[in-house]
Design a protein that fits this description.
Distance between the termini: 56 Å
CATH superfamily of the largest domain: Type I PLP-dependent aspartate aminotransferase-like (Major domain)
Radius of gyration: 24 Å
CATH topology of the largest domain: Aspartate Aminotransferase, domain 2
Number of helices: 14
CATH class of the largest domain: Alpha Beta
Shape: globular
Largest sheet: 7 strands, mixed
Mean pLDDT: 93
Length: 482
């Protein structure tokens, strides 16, 4: 009888233990790496992380998806076949509804600069929110003035006047208008493969069919050859690409232009770093044609490239206008246009106003980001970790023929996948498959490029050496199965 009772007890206990194990599967009790799930032998394991997410008792993914389909515009796309319900973030990691941890190698589309829930930024936001949540620029407030000063101090040359807005599209819109007002001319030039926003004006600057609607857009905008060292006809010779800019100004404009827009490393375009020597040559051509040089630093700014605080400094140029967004506020709606006092003066011809631009809470967050970047030496960190990651990715390229190109600098890198290295035919289907498999291993990367065949690796700037190794090991693991 006793033996039967024990056996019966075991039969009752076993399902409970199995249920408990199932509930804990994927939980990130990362201080003890042995508690991380090992789906199969030889699978790369995420680095330990001493943090336990809060229990989540909110709506599940299916319920949220149903509401999203009913109440949100269908243009808002989702990543992955099985959609992730992300409920918490801490530094370079995200957690889903079950508590499973993911390595965030895309930073909320290159927006979370110093880390999810960074305590310095959170404290600044909470403190300012308790004091004053919102006022506008019609009153004096120290947060916007102090932050503008701190931002201007980090700009080279005479780039000392700031206008705050809420998004990269708004910033680039304003830069276009200022260039046209200042020069008295209308034509604007940007690069093919560029992305500068989704407003009617900035959609015109953008040269990606994926992001362009059949509506009036970008009057007076021209696109020139992209100085892409991998796919461009002139390889890495930046000066030869600049000839196309000179020819366009001569043939397709009155001979004078208002401005020239560029990213230094194209973000949505797939982490394409402009060919060396291109920007000095292009700036010279543009200025001889009376135009202003406008650097879109929405993704490359704030030390992300490692070698310099601003992306344009990597080619030794100083623009006339700089636009900033994304990482400027670590996820809060904040953006800026920075220019010279002379150019800034053109807006004073009329009244100009932005209700939320420079909001006290957002300004406090932006100022805190600058403090963290300096205190934690994040630019140097991006250089060190980025160099290591780039070296390991290039070693991976030697191993897997599907990798056609590895590029970028700092923590703004791209891995382009191709079917054949000679023809460079984009490996679209393979990219989608690997993208899903990386997620299953707990790695979240971005996807971009004209053909959607580039992994965009742009994590929060607290991304560690161990994170970099795990990312590459995970890529190696899934590519080895192709």
């Amino acid at each position: 009888m006793a033996g039967g009772a024990i056996a019966g007890g075991r039969r009752l206990l076993l399902p409970r233990l199995q249920a408990l194990a199932s509930c804990r599967r994927g939980l990130s009790l990362a201080a003890d790496a042995s508690k991380e799930v090992r789906p199969e032998a030889g699978v790369p394991q995420m680095p330990a992380f001493d943090y336990t997410p809060q229990p989540y008792d909110g709506p599940k993914a299916d319920e949220i998806l149903a509401k999203r389909k009913k109440f949100l515009n269908p243009a808002l796309f989702l990543y992955y076949k099985k959609h992730l319900n992300i409920v918490e973030g801490k530094m370079q990691y995200l957690f889903d509804e079950s508590g499973r941890r993911y390595l965030d190698a895309f930073a909320g589309i290159v927006t979370v600069s110093v880390g999810h829930g960074h305590p310095t930024v959170v404290d600044a936001v909470v403190k300012q929110t308790k004091l004053l949540q919102h006022t506008t620029t019609i009153y004096l407030h120290h947060a916007i003035a102090n932050y503008a000063e701190a931002l201007a101090q980090r700009m080279p040359g005479n780039l000392k006047v700031v206008y705050f807005v809420n998004s990269g599209s708004e910033a680039n819109d304003m830069a276009m208008m200022m260039a046209r007002l200042y020069t008295g001319t209308f034509d604007i030039v940007s690069l093919r493969n560029a992305y500068h926003g989704m407003s009617p004006s900035t959609m015109g600057l953008t040269a990606h069919s994926t992001w362009k609607y059949n509506v009036a857009q970008g009057f007076g905008v021209h696109h020139v050859m992209n100085p892409d060292p991998y796919r461009g006809p002139f390889g890495a010779d930046g000066k030869l690409y600049a000839n196309d800019l000179a020819n366009l100004i001569e043939s397709a404009t009155p001979g004078r232009i208002a401005g020239f827009f560029h990213e230094t490393i194209q973000g949505v375009g797939g982490a394409v770093e402009l060919a060396p020597g291109y920007l000095p040559a292009a700036y010279d051509i543009v200025r001889k044609a009376g135009g202003l040089c406008i650097a879109d630093e929405v993704q490359t700014g704030f030390g992300r490239t490692g070698s310099n605080f601003w992306g344009f400094q990597n080619q030794g140029v100083t623009p006339d206008i700089v636009t900033l967004a994304k990482g400027i506020g670590n996820g809060l709606p904040l953006a800026a246009v920075v220019t010279t006092p002379e150019i800034a003066q053109v807006l004073a011809q009329r009244l100009h106003f932005n209700t939320y631009g420079g909001n006290p809470v957002c300004s406090a967050a932006g100022h805190a980001v600058l403090e963290v970047l300096e205190k934690e030496k994040r630019q140097a960190h991006c250089a060190t970790v980025g160099d290591h990651l780039l070296h390991r990715l290039r070693a991976l390229q030697d191993k897997h023929d599907i990798i056609g190109n590895v590029r970028g600098r700092g923590l703004m890198l791209g891995v382009e996948l191709v079917k054949d290295r000679t023809t460079k035919a984009p490996a679209k289907e393979e990219t989608l498959l690997l993208f899903e498999q990386l997620k299953d291993l707990g790695v979240l990367v971005g996807k971009g490029g004209l053909h959607g065949n580039v992994f965009r690796i742009k994590p929060p700037m607290c991304f560690s050496m161990e994170d970099a190794d795990f990312l590459v090991d995970a890529m190696d693991h899934v590519m080895s199965k192709l």
